[in-house]
Amino acid sequence: MATTAGVIVVLSCRGNIIYDRHWLATYFVIWYGVPYMTYDIFAMYLSHYYRYHVKGHEDYKQHSLRTVNSFVRREFLLVLHHIALLTILLPITLVWRERDAGALR
User: Where is it mainly found (predicted)?
Assistant: First the structure.
C-alpha cells in the first residue's frame, strides 16, 4: 500500500516534488499509518504472549500487567519505535506538511 500511495503521489506532482502537495500523502499518514502502528504493537504483544503461553510458562496462563511488562522489557526497542512514530514523528509530519502548505499559498 505504501508503494502504491507513493507512486500515485509522485506521479501527481507537476512541479517540485518536495514542495508539491497531494491529499493522499496526508490521509495515508492518518488513515493507514496510525492504525497500522497501533495494530502492529498489539499483534507483537499477542505473538509474544502466545509464544510463552504455548511453552507452558506459568505467568502466561492469562493476560496480565506482568505479561505486558515482560513484552515491553523484551521488545523495548520495537515498542519504543512504534510509540515514537505514533506520538512524535507522525504528528510532526502532519504539522510540518500543513505549515509548508500554508507558506506556499
Answer: membrane
Write out pLDDT tens, residues 5-43: 889 988 888 877 777 778 888 888 888 889 999 999 999
* 70 closest CA partner among 100, 89, 47, 36: 47
- Nearest CA-CA partner of 91 in 29, 10, 1, 20: 29
What pTM does this model have? 0.74
Residue 17: which of 2, 29, 6, 30 has the closest Cα?
A: 6
